[in-house]
Design a protein that fits this description.
Layout: E1 3-11, E2 16-24, E3 27-33, E4 42-43, E5 48-51, E6 53-58, H1 60-65, H2 76-89, E7 92-101, H3 109-127, E8 133-141, H4 147-151, E9 160-166, H5 178-185, H6 191-223, E10 227-230, H7 235-243, E11 248-250, H8 255-263, E12 267-271, H9 272-277, H10 287-292, E13 298-300, H11 307-319, H12 323-328, H13 332-337, E14 354-360, E15 363-372, E16 377-381
Parallel strand pairs: 1-4, 1-5, 6-7, 7-8, 8-9, 9-10, 10-11, 11-12, 12-13
Antiparallel strand pairs: 1-2, 2-3, 5-14, 14-15, 15-16
Length: 386
C-alpha cells in the first residue's frame, strides 16, 4: 500500500497538526506539517487522521458465536469474519480477542465457547481474510479447578498477548456484595437455590483459587506474557498485583484500587461503554470520575466495539482532556502495555494502521480504515468517504 494523505488533522502522540502523511510498503514513511502538492494524494478535507485502535479486551466474538442465549452459530468461521468486520468498521486494527477460560455457574457452555473461539480464530488467521490483526487474550477464572488444564494447550501460542486473572465467585472483587452478583446474572434463582450455589462456589474457590493463581502467574512470567488483574477492588488486591508483578489493572471497581494502581505504576484500563453511558452498568466506579483524577490510561471497548472512538471523543468533550491524550488511550497506551512497539501512533517507521474520522453531530464516524494484517494487507474503504 503506497498512498499520500493530505489536508488532514493528524493526531500525533503529543499534539494535533494539519498536514500530510506518506505511506509506503505498509509503514508510515513521513509525517509533514502544512500543504502538500503530491499528485493523486487523498484529500481529507480537514477530517481527522488517527492511528488504528488497539483493543485489549473485547467480548464481541462471543456475540457472533452465540447470537441468542443457547443458540450457537453453525459454523464459527463466518462468525469470526463478521466479528472482524465490526472491529475494523469501528476503527480497531489490532484486537485481543478475550476468550474466557472457566465455567463458574454456566456449566459446559463456557468451555464450548472457548473451544469454538480459539479454533475459529486460528482458522481465520490462516486464511489471510482477516482485516484486523487478531491476537489472544485468555481470561482465566482461577477459581475453576479445571483452569490449568484449559490454559495449558494455549499458553505457548505465539499470538497470546495477554492473560487476565479473574475471580467471579460471590463475595469476591466485583461481587463483594453478593446481591450484585445475583442481580447481574439474572438467573431467577430462589433464595434457597442462590444460597446453595454460592456455598458451592465459595467452597471450590477456597480449595483451588490461590494455587491456580500462583501457577498461572508463574506460567506467564516464564514466557514474558503480560498479566492483567481483573476487577481490583481493595488495597489487598493491588498489593497482591504488585507482588506478582502484574502490569495492568483491568476494570478496577473502586477509586481506591485505581489510585493504588497508579501509585504502583500499574496501567489502568476502563471500559468505553462506562465512559459513554456515564457510569458502570454494574454499579462500580465511573470511568469518567477516574479520568478526571488522572487515573485512566487505557480504554477497552469491552462489549461495544464502537465505544472506543466515542469514548475517546467523549472524554475530550466532557472533561477537556486533550484529544491527542484520549486517542493515546485507545492506541499507543494499550500497544505499549502489551509490548507492541511497532504500532499505536502516527510516526515514521510505524505500521500504517490508520483511520479517517469525521465528527458528525458530535459523533466520531470512522469513514476509512487502513489495516496492515499479519497475513495480508487490505484496504477497507467506506462508501461515503469523500
Amino acid at each position: 500500500m503506497n498512498i499520500v494523505i493530505k489536508n488532514a488533522r493528524i493526531v500525533l502522540r503529543d499534539e494535533i497538526i494539519t498536514g500530510s502523511v506518506k505511506v509506503s510498503n505498509g509503514k508510515i514513511e513521513s509525517v509533514d506539517q502544512g500543504s502538500c502538492a503530491t499528485p493523486g494524494a487523498i484529500d481529507f478535507c480537514g477530517d481527522y487522521l488517527l492511528p488504528g485502535f488497539v483493543e485489549l479486551h473485547t467480548d464481541n466474538l462471543e456475540k457472533q458465536l452465540e447470537p441468542r442465549p443457547g443458540i450457537f452459530w453453525p459454523d464459527p468461521f463466518p462468525a469470526v469474519l463478521a466479528h472482524d468486520a465490526q472491529m475494523v468498521s469501528s476503527g480497531i486494527t489490532t484486537v485481543l480477542d478475550a476468550v474466557s477460560l472457566g465455567e463458574y455457574h454456566d456449566g459446559p457452555k463456557r468451555t464450548k465457547i472457548m473451544d469454538m473461539s480459539i479454533h475459529a480464530l486460528r482458522k481465520a488467521r490462516g486464511t489471510g481474510m482477516l482485516k484486523a490483526d487478531h491476537k489472544f487474550h485468555l481470561r482465566c477464572e482461577y477459581s475453576d479447578p479445571k483452569v490449568l488444564k484449559m490454559i495449558a494447550p494455549h499458553v505457548d501460542d505465539d499470538v497470546l498477548m495477554l492473560v487476565s486473572l479473574m475471580d467471579h465467585t460471590p463475595g469476591q472483587r466485583q461481587f463483594t456484595d453478593t446481591t450484585l452478583y445475583r442481580n447481574y446474572y439474572k438467573k431467577g434463582w430462589t433464595d434457597e437455590e442462590f444460597a446453595k450455589i454460592s456455598e458451592s462456589m465459595i467452597a471450590t474457590q477456597h480449595a483451588c483459587a490461590a494455587d491456580n493463581r500462583q501457577a498461572i502467574v508463574a506460567l506467564c512470567h516464564e514466557r514474558n506474557i503480560p498479566i492483567a488483574s481483573h476487577d481490583d477492588t481493595s488495597a489487598e488486591h493491588i498489593e497482591q498485583a504488585v507482588l506478582e508483578k502484574i502490569a495492568i489493572s483491568e476494570f478496577p471497581t473502586t477509586k481506591l484500587a485505581a489510585s493504588l494502581a497508579r501509585e504502583s505504576g500499574i496501567s489502568i484500563v476502563m471500559g468505553g461503554p462506562n465512559v459513554v453511558r456515564g457510569g458502570s452498568h454494574s454499579g462500580n466506579v465511573a470511568a469518567q470520575d477516574l479520568a478526571a483524577e488522572g487515573l485512566l490510561d487505557i480504554l477497552s471497548s469491552d462489549y461495544v466495539p464502537g465505544s472506543l472512538a466515542l469514548g475517546a471523543f467523549t472524554l475530550n468533550r466532557e472533561l477537556s482532556i486533550p484529544l491527542h491524550e484520549t486517542i493515546c488511550m485507545v492506541s499507543l497506551n494499550p500497544a505499549r502495555a502489551i509490548g507492541l512497539d511497532d504500532r499505536g501512533e502516527i510516526r515514521a517507521g510505524k505500521r500504517s494502521d490508520l483511520l479517517r474520522v469525521r465528527e458528525v453531530e458530535s459523533v466520531p464516524v470512522v469513514l476509512q480504515t487502513w489495516a496492515v494484517g499479519t497475513a495480508s494487507r487490505l484496504e477497507i474503504t467506506a462508501k461515503n468517504a469523500a
